[in-house]
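Please review the protein record below. Tell me whether the encoded fold seems credible here:
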Amino acid sequence: MKIFSPFFIVLTLFLLFSSCKKNKSITYPIAGEFGENIMVKTTGDSLSSINTYSLTAELGKKADLKVVITNQSLSNEIWFYTSANGWSISEYSSSKTQIFTSSSSGTIDLYMEFVPGPGTYLGGKCQVDIYENSDDVTKSLFLKW
């Protein structure tokens, strides 16, 4: 009968747990294919309505990412998106919310543009709730444009 050394057992457990964590890893590049990444913004940051942005992340093979954007604008300020690489996107709801869910691993990226309403100078604002491998919000941002 072979007896494994404590070092071998600890090493095996370490490798097992570190590979599991890596499979669920989520990182946010500073920029994506379409511009600055809104995922690296901080609460209170302003977005320019003349710039385009990326909603981008690097996902491990078993990572799950969901982003819920809720429009808190008083008027018709809105966002637009296109070129959804690795994202599944819900319809914009009557509660002024839209859900962006990762649909693949690796690099996922989405073109986004934030537009003020016609004839208004109020500017827009939104809450961005981020769910990383969880059913609970792991980070929230409040952005304006």
